[in-house]
């Protein structure tokens, strides 16, 4: 069911009600005629299009400085083109709709909107399609991702479905005053034969809440792929850019497989994406024999979320595959490893950089009885590495440290990040600390070697 959390937000602009198919097609034809006219008079005229909600956007070459018309560019489908195309009317059973989505993604049944459309209006639905399929993933707390694929009678009907969403975004206005509202902001998208993307941003009392929903539509032939998900810090353009890149990367294989729906289709769905590169990695190497077995996480909400000074340094929630190993000894001996495969090298690098920035900004974390002190440690493993010790001081020790010692090691190889943690009584002296780190590093290296 749609998330009731946002029921009280007031849509901006003119409410959009579902249109009959004939009207959708008429409006799509009208928008295409407008685009043809603009192309004829040249780029100078096109540059003066009304910009209702300016913003920086992600361009094809990664430059985020461009400003675009929130309505985007209407779909380019020639209604006078070939009429004899035998458009596919059924989704192949092996179509890779879930490619790039986290483990635990499920197909609950017919499509149900999980989020609202542009500025609170209806948005995209598979109405008018001849076949559809949908999948969803959620961490059971607040994060969610959804995809749907719809086949229409022909390419013109599919294009009109995207144009309808463009129209809804164009009719939205910038929120004003001290009230709750939803703002829709267009984002550049260049996937498939035609695509359109936008972000809904929530206002409470006139201020951005940081809550955002990204929505992407891609058309190939008579098929439309709809992908959406929520994210935080939606007031930050860099975060919007990163989210757009994330969706582009994660839907890339699914979009490529949509060639089966083109006017000149490929013969079959392209070969499946490679299996996870972390499936065969032995995460228990170096652990005691009774450490147990490696557990497969759901791809988010794993126990390996790592905080420093109350902020998240590492979170596998955006990884596409996550595996974990844990060991609890009888005395002071706790160990854990998490292996997270992200959708791209850039995502993995960003996670490492986030952890490094927080460590640099958080030398210690104080409590009522003392402090946890974080000290960086050199680590030369993989393509990118970060390590630190955590030692514990208390007022009872007059600012000195007890013997407890925790060591964290983060190592990146390609799009995979390994997080290793060990706690024990190795903090008694510089010599015991060095010995503890040396043994842990050797064990971590044995895992990293399997990733090379």
Automatic annotation (TrEMBL):
Residues covered by region (Disordered): 1-32
Compositionally biased tracts (Basic and acidic residues): 1-10
Transmembrane intervals: 35-57
Keywords, comma-separated and alphabetical: Membrane, Transmembrane, Transmembrane helix
UniProt protein name: Unannotated protein
Source species: freshwater metagenome
